[in-house]
Design goal:
The chain contains no helices and 19 strands. It is mainly beta. The protein has one domain: Lipocalin, CATH 2.40.128.630. A four-stranded antiparallel beta sheet has the order 1-2-3-4, with no helix packed on it. The radius of gyration is 19 Å and the shape is globular.
């Protein structure tokens, strides 16, 4: 999911769009001109590690000799978040290893054809909440999840990062260093959604969807 921001880029104010893509690359682009400012990997998949002069990844194998993101991607539709004060981009990364074996397509009415077979190493996969420097793409910190996850991310003005994982854990982190400050087991997968925060009668709440349940949290009243 793209994120819009106004940042200082090499001494110049830029209106940018930032995107952690399913292909495992993190992009920063000038949203007024479309110019690519940066593109760098944010996962460990080996099919490509650099961006070419045309703005596309330079493929370093044919997909059958190294790791690709699995069909669900290095990340997906789960929302990331940007914290302007730290210039950090927070995203749920999916570290998976898949290989693609091309096959002659078999076209037939009503039958899907993918031109090959994807083999996924299910024992090697895991997930992570990652904080990326938007100027360099470098990893500032990460918190590893036991399995590839689809939970979204939210940051607050107080410097907290809220995120959830595939095992139903809802957590709060210190945005500066990634310290895990709080944890709650929801009982269901946190899938595709990000937390939201709102004020009610002068009190701030954080709400998360997990399975078929909405759960809200707040600090104890004085």
């Amino acid at each position: 999911m793209p994120v819009l921001a106004d940042i200082q880029w090499r001494g110049e104010e830029r209106k940018v769009v930032m995107l952690a893509n399913r292909n495992g690359f993190f992009y920063v682009m000038d949203r007024a001109t479309g110019k690519l400012l940066m593109g760098t990997p944010f996962t460990g998949t080996t099919w490509a590690r650099e961006i070419g002069s045309d703005g596309r990844p330079d493929i370093i194998n044919d997909g059958s000799k190294g790791c690709l993101p699995d069909p669900w991607g290095g990340t997906n539709f789960m929302p990331p978040s940007y914290y302007p004060e730290l210039e950090l981009f927070f995203v749920t990364a999916r570290e998976t290893c898949a290989t693609f074996v091309p096959e002659e397509p078999d076209f037939a009415p009503g039958k899907a054809s993918f031109g090959g077979v994807v083999h996924i190493d299910r024992d090697a996969g895991y997930g992570a909440l990652r904080a990326l420097d938007v100027k360099t793409g470098e990893l500032h910190w990460e918190f590893a999840y036991p399995s590839p996850s689809f939970g979204g991310v939210m940051t607050t003005a107080a410097g907290l990062v809220f995120a959830g994982d595939h095992d139903g854990n809802f957590m709060a982190f210190n945005a500066v260093n990634g310290e895990n400050l709080w944890h709650y087991q929801t009982g269901s997968r946190i899938w595709g959604t990000a937390p939201v925060t709102y004020m009610l009668d002068g009190r701030q709440y954080v709400l998360i969807a997990s399975g078929t349940t909405l759960t809200a949290f707040a600090l104890p009243e004085d």
